[in-house]
Amino acid sequence: MRLPRCLILTLLTAVLGSLLTVIGPVASARPTGLIHDSGFEEQNSRTLSGAWSGEGPDYKGIDIDLGYQKTGRKNAFIRTSSRTWNAVRQQVTVKPQTLYYLEGWVRTSGNYTTGYFGARGTNGRTIVQKNYGKVVTNGAYQYLSMAFNSGTNSSVTLYVGYVAPGADSWVQIDDLDLADSPYRNWAGYVVPSSPVNAAPHSVGAAWTEPAFTCQDVPNDHLGVWVGLDGLDTSATESLVQVGTHAACRTGDLYPQHSAFWEVINAGTDSFAQPIPMVVQAGDRITASVVRSSADPANYIFTIDNLSRPGQRQTLTKRAPAARSESAEVVVERPHVSTGSTWPRSVSVPFSYVTVDGAPLDFYDTVAVRARQADTGIVYGPSAATTDSGGYSNFTVTSHAA
């Protein structure tokens, strides 16, 4: 007996749902905690307090529930028209002779180029510093990141500030982070809004669905997806994504593959939701996420299994809190309720990669890597190349640290 197509899709959705219900929220964040109150959410008044303090004589403090924050409810700010240095700062304990990774988000009035984010040693000298101020996309937060060695210092002073141009100007500051590990839970490329990148509104890629066995590690999981937003350490970040998931279950020789979408809206997570589509190892998948120009709270997800005709799906989902300030093409170890691991051997080739229709070499990109702690295996992208058609190509692979 031939089942009606609607019944087949219902059964397929139920099966996929059983595979995906264990998947928890994705996370780009590294193990951190070196900066106290990194998102300013513990500030209870307009005045900087606790671990945070100010430099310079002019107006600075905390915005609370004004809608200026990157995530959460609050952000720090400086506003002045003088030509005097002003900054928000915090002294942080570090280990000497250790490599650290500093990142954060700023949004500016756009009428100056004399903003600086960095770290000073105990002698007051600058260890590392990055310039900001230029605005590519009005109203967008800009991502700043850098690495530095602490040298002989047992503490450093982190600061975000600027010298005003003699006219009314401001900076809003949120979600600063300091870590002693370069690894995230993602492996691939991210294009963030930055002093040189516009805020992205679309991302697309093609990939070959990965193949691996379940014999060595029965709890391997691997997600492959494209998305917008998500490059933040805050628990209230937003992210919209669509892709595929391969999951080993007890007794399986090979993982079971499926397609999914997920929306995290200011920390409220839909969790991975099944897309009724047949997916197998070796299949050729294309996917994209586009922020609607007519309604920026709407995101259009498209995923297509080119190896299996008739498997294309398009969905529209809402994420009102998403700012669309980063684009991702990544492989991930999803969080699951019983814990999960990376497969020992990974090779995921990506092609036809574009962000807002341009290849990766058009942007200042962030190459992100992951690491399986118990094995020491590192997962990361190869150098991205651009073909004659204007598309980027790279491969995420595993290798010894």
Structure description:
The structure is a single chain. The chain is 4% helix and 46% strand. By secondary structure, it is mainly β. The strands form three sheets. The chain has a 17-stranded mixed beta sheet that branches. Strand 20 and strand 21 form a beta hairpin. The longest helix has 16 residues. The chain is globular. The N and C termini lie far apart (54 Å). The N terminus is likely disordered.
Structure described in brief:
With 401 residues, the protein is mainly beta. It has one helix spanning 5-20; strands spanning 53-55, 59-64, 74-80, 85-93, 99-108, 115-120, 126-132, 142-149, 155-163, 169-179, 183-184, 186-192, 202-208, 221-229, 239-247, 256-265, 268-269, 273-275, 284-291, 298-305, 313-318, 326-332, 347-355, 366-371, 377-381, 385-386, 392-400.
Report the radius of gyration as a whole number of Å: 22 Å
- What count of helical segments does DSSP give? 1
- Distance separating the two termini: 54 Å
Measured by DSSP, the beta-strand proportion falls in over 45%
Proportion of residues in helical segments: under 10%
Largest sheet composition: 17 strands, mixed
Please identify the structural class as seen in this structure.
Answer: mainly beta
Element-by-element helix/strand order: HEEEEEEEEEEEEEEEEEEEEEEEEEEE
- Give the tally of β-strands: 27
Shape: globular
What's the mean pLDDT score?
Answer: 90
Unreliable parts: 1-19, 21-27
